[in-house]
Amino acid sequence: MNDKFVLRPSQPTDTHAIFELIKALAEYEKLSHAVVGSVEALQKHLFGSRPYAEAIVAESDGKAVGFALYSYNYSTFLTKPGIYLEDLFVLPEYRRQGIGKAIFKYLAELAVERDCGRMEWSVLDWNKPAIAFYHQIGAEILADWRICRITF
Asked: Hey, which residues does 8 pair with through a beta bridge?
């Protein structure tokens, strides 16, 4: 526990704040045009009758200042589930306070608790600060793998 911020599982009342953080992430990545979803869809997918993802909120003084959104994948080789971290974002003015590292620790502990075999995520090749951070926490960046995608 840190006295500057708190990490917690998201609640339905966090949906608007999470969506605002998603838009801030998209702006940082110069992908604002790609945000075509809605608060309502996010609410349904995080908290509806069939949730597709989960989220963690980082709060400072009661304000959402960061989030991580994740879902589960499956490793046939390990025959275990894994956590796939879709997005992690901390507002620029709250960076370098240990929030990102704390989020990874929280997710790693959750993965172990839920008997997951691994945790995976992607990083944009130009995002040198994130790549340096991932190396610092001991992550392996897989050079031989490329993301493939079909969008519907």
From this structure: 57
